[in-house]
Protein 1
Amino acid sequence: MAIREGKWRCPYCAVVNRGAQMACIGCGATRDADVRFFLEDDAAEVTDEALVARGRTGADWLCTFCGASNPPPLDHCRNCGAEKGAAPSRAVRDAPPAPLFPPARPPTAPAPPGRLRPWAVALLLVAVAFVAAAAYLGLRRTEETLTVAGFEWERRIAVEAWRTVREQAWEGRVPSAARIVSRRQEVHHTERDQVGTRRVKAGHRDLGNGFFEDVYSDEPVYRERPVYRTRVAYDVQRWVPDRTVRASGRDQAARWPEPALRPGEREASRAEKLVVVLQGKKTYRMELPEARWNALQPGQSVSAVIRGGWSVLELHP
């Protein structure tokens, strides 16, 4: 596994040093327990045999008297001369690989209101006032006396026909009354089979001495395998939409159209739309249920609740 040289930032003068350096090149301070090693994304693999050997000697030990870092081969602290004894070593830690894309920068905080220019404040107030006025006008309710000026209606009957249709289904789901037309093999779904493993870089390991080691792991390799089943085409008799019969008028004599059903046809559904035309300061149209629609008379005055000046919500005699 590749060895890469890291770096460390001096906690006293902030100068960045190579991982192999035991003292800061900026201020001369010995690297101590407060130093944290880091690996740059583009750090190259170490090829110098001496540096590779140094990286593999193990984690530095920290002097219990002065806190300085020392390579494992040393028996006495290079800074104060104290014996190694049972001095603790730096931790060896695994770290995940660097992300392919840098994290998104946090959004910039908006400028405080006090820093807005006067024209921006005025524009904001005008926009707020406009939105508030539009909401008020669109939701406000008013009452107005209206006159029944006319009626409109439309009634529809949907007709279905008993016909032979061609469909497809997987074998085992074909209706019992169907007539098979053809069969063919098609991909029903795919399954994944593991065909081996591959080694991938999983991150790097801080060796605790200014050097890092690449960490690899084995991940499975899969192959998609198609699973075939029999696809069946068949003919079957079903009720299917055929036509719609309509009747409409501008009076109060609403009637249902005559569907004139032929052999092999049936009614599927009925629908209607009954509208009263109301005249006031402007003309309104309101859809009503049949009983309420039939109860109105041409020229009748009604009290109406109007929303936003464009639609009638309620009618009262």
Protein 2
Amino acid sequence: MSAAAFFDLDKTVIAKSSTLAFGKPFYKGGLVNRRAVLKSSFAQFVYLLQGADEDSMDKMRDYLQALCAGWSVQQVHDIVAETLHELIDPLVYAEALELFAEHRAAGREVVLVSSSGEEIVGPIGEMLGVDRVIATRMVVEDGHYTGDIDFYAYGDGKQVAIKELAAKRGWDLAECYAYSDSATDLPMLAAVGNPVAVNPDKALRRAAGERDWPVRVFIKPVRASRRVPSPPGPPLAYVGVSALAALVALAWLAGRRSRSTG
């Protein structure tokens, strides 16, 4: 394949934040506290309305480093595996699945690119039958997260990872596609010849208008398991990812909202 289609995950392929969706399972597993989970529904609402800007993503990164230090990698994997289909399967946009099929039919690989971690993005990618994922990774020692971030798949980081993967795979970026809902992904969108704004936030909608980029609206979440056949060939390739627990955005968002209204 000489090209690829890169898809942001949250609000582009699925109708929620992938990190916020796992609030209750991580509370039950003892990884986040009760207050954070009680506020997770409201945090999800705020996220859906406002999206994520550069400042919030930077603060989320810092919060993640402090919160996940000491978490068991295996416990995170187990919780995601046990709850993935219940939480994520009904949230996948039918329009995204249709695009996956169209790009494959045109000979392009499908790549998920997300600031969430491999523990979320990898299993979701496998469930959706994509070819590769790019995600954030954190440092692991003795089966636990140290709290240090090795690679943050956000902003320019996404663009760098895409360019490195394209060079490795021999893809012509001018022939590639990219889809995202957020202005924080402008570097990723600008890296390809065919950028598309999906359910764009205000800043991205404005930028898309200025640059004559197409805008698409996805509105039909469906159960992906009923639409996605078992992928043939080798298993999903993980690109630039290793162990990460980027599963704590709900706690940070809830705390941020609480502080701003307190």
Protein 3
Amino acid sequence: MKTSRRMFIKTGAMAIAGTAVMGRTAFAAKKQKGIIGLQLYSIRSEMSKDPLGSLKQVAAMGYVYVEHASYTNRKFYGYPAPEFRKILDDLGLKMISGHTVMGRQHWDASRNDFSDSWKYTVDDAGVLGQKYVVSPSMDESMRKTYDDFKRYMDIYNKCGELCRKQGMKFGYHNHDFEFSEKLNNEKLFDIMMKSIDPNLVVIQLDIGNMYNGGAVALDVVKQYPGRFENIHVKDEIKATGGEQQYESCIIGEGIVDARKVIKLATKIGGAQVYIIEQESYQGKPPMECVKQDLEIMKKWGY
């Protein structure tokens, strides 16, 4: 097909103009690498006193995604699920995930089924539009023997199936005992990782908690590539009091090397969701801390 010189120049000029526009659009702002959220336990005192006002502040900081840590009697921070969903929607916030402990009482062995209370937990998470229903710990009685622990891992898989029916995933959030406690001479964390179905259950890796259990975040991410789509971004410093050796701090200021860990988790760990959590503040206001945490994450390109 023949093209006149005039048409060639016109077409070329349009292409150059288009490239310029695309260039301005592409480089106007750095594209985030994933979803950044805030675990509301970071501002637990503020949320207990004034949940609505606290959420307004969180939204004003630039957070879009949040993760709850309060669900009692089918209410989130005192609000029924539909009402709390409206509050979030009005503020432009999304509940990506939520923490509710799944305990022994939530599985009825005689019926081989979950309790109604746990089914309500999953239902209400669906109302909020959650992607993850996360149990943030495990009762000590569930990890006394190897066989008991393995049985609960099977129940975790069943919970993954229950959540999948509503388009969600079940998750487990580590603390420190998973790395310090052993059954049959094997770390609990390693037993978990080989027992759960990764298509049904997500390990929400808390990259800070594990240090009190003697583990190092970079090593764990390398050991289990592709297994951590949802992580808790946290940093740790030497504790100023209490029984534990380390306490959390503003990310980037501690021993975790959080930037390097989340970069590796993004590259080989499958990380897509980054939930900021800070539980200790070294004398600073919690709201100020979580604002700084978000600014640091954005500075790192997330």
Protein 4
Amino acid sequence: MTTSRRDFLRAGSLAVGGAILLPAWACNPAAKSQSGGPGLVTGLQLYSVRDEMRQDPLDTLTKLRQMGYTVVEHANYVNGKFYGWTPQEFKKVLDDLGMTMPSGHTVLGKNHWDEQTGDFTAEWKKLVEDAAYMGQEYVVSPWLDGALRQTYDDLVRFMEIFNKCGELCKQSGMRFGYHNHDFEFSEKLNDMTLWDIMMNNTDADKVVMQLDTGNMYVAGALAKDLLEKYPGRYDNIHIKDMVRTADGNSFESTIVGSGLLPMKEIADLARDSGTKLFIIEQESYQGKTPMECMEANFAAMKAWGYL
């Protein structure tokens, strides 16, 4: 987790259950071509190419499509637009390229819940509406502000908002999810990790946990342990490998299969425990260009049978 990533998520947040038998993206021919088996789909988190998407999103998406990517996950919904496009414009861009977007990241914050009315704000409802229009299966919040996790009671109260958001998303045929970083495993309240508190206070049919295999490693947590501890809670995960930083003091993401994590084993465990959507994410590049890395990530997942 980098400071720039945290700031990016916070900026986005200020701007802005029951099982589904057959997700819309699974019916799309482009998505099927990217399937690693019955019901399995692999895509790319566009934060991996954030600078390219900022400079020329159409050219970037076109190049990713030429590499073979047909499924993406967004990380930019600001003022009702995706990467500067209205939902109608962005959907046409993806449709024209033969791409689908089953998942997207936007931070759910305290500002999106109106305590007086006991309901979500119009801003958040619009986000959910736009996500449904885009054909998303998942609305994922990728950050939990520190003010919401000062005490055990604070966190439990906000987990009820998570459950309510799951109910809201379900009305549009979607599911609400949460994407972890490292603090969920390094911080404790009442002698329990934040992750355990979150898992124990969210309903499985309302809240999906999008496990990020790399972020948790920074805190010393292992994806295989969490997959075994909470089976069936991760039908949408981030595939992220890690290496030590150049100074040796921390970790950063790298090309899948070239780092410290047993990524093929993790992916297989996730698949066997019910994961259907695998999202590649890489935020650091070790001297290569982001697009070179995305091509290598595609090749690695294809070699493992996930593309």
